[in-house]
Amino acid sequence: MTRPDAMPVKGCCVPQRDTAVTRAPDIRPATAGTAAGDWGVPIPGGPATIGTDAPVFPADGEAPARRVMLRPYRLDAHAVTNGRFAAFVDATGYRTEAERHGWSFVFHAFVPQGLDTPAPEQTPWWRRVDGACWSAPEGPGSSVADRLDHPAIHIAWSDAATFAAWAGGRLPTEAEWEHAARGGKPAAPFPWGTAEPDDTGTLPCNIWQGDFPHCNTGADGFVGTAPVGGFMPNGYGLYQMCGNVWEWCADTFRIRSLSRTAKTRNLTASEGRERVMKGGSYLCHRSYCYRYRIAARVGHPPDTSAGHTGFRVAYDS
């Protein structure tokens, strides 16, 4: 296994589109059934430690550790499910970025055999699949009918923000997300504490086991998404804050550094209107994408979608 401090600083396994962002339609807020009180778990406010002084990927802006003050808020106990997202679509007629673009990225192992799909040069384990979207995760012919309790995927930031407003909430800030993920353990690198996941016996979350991107042993029981209530919750009663799917935050992506590299990265992020994603996914592994740590972060444009991008909703108390 490669040591984290020896790993190359690569962009995480979230590919980006090279097309213009489309404009999402206006959606009226929900009036019943998906109100904030139906979903949010109370999260205490007060001082919170965000970031880390021991970054694994300094270029991602994981450092420095800093103290912030937060108001009390509420956060979904788990990522928004296919079932809940389907109710939103039924009520509003909303079409996601993936549907408006006509395609999204599907992990190569899930692409139907015989389908000719192009692969991004930098992330060849992804395939562009026409028709792939939240309701057809692997493309035409696939369905979420048997995955209604799994997280909705192929979700772009703009999709997540629209749903959150409809549900009477908003996307969490990065600080709120990290504070909630720690579950009352300010120094913990993971929602469950300090135990490092491995490929055999310590399996506290849904990430990759084996040789990425070729062989996932599925030792944790899953090779793709898992039901949102799977694995143990953290101290606040929140499920799968790390692993399973990447989760969008409200914040624009920015690195807190005056270095030339950081300035260049921030300029790129600003031009692309990039937003923060947290938590890693079922494709993360310590040998490559060691970003299922709470302090880990990446930034991507708001129309980015793939087979492991999801979200959860925050609510003001």
UniProtKB/TrEMBL annotation:
Signal peptide: none annotated. Gene3D superfamilies: paralog of FGE (formylglycine-generating enzyme). It comes from the Bacteria. Coiled coil: none annotated. Residues 41-314 form the Sulfatase-modifying factor enzyme-like domain. PANTHER family: FORMYLGLYCINE-GENERATING ENZYME, SULFATASE MODIFYING FACTOR 1, 2. This is Formylglycine-generating enzyme family protein. It comes from Belnapia mucosa.
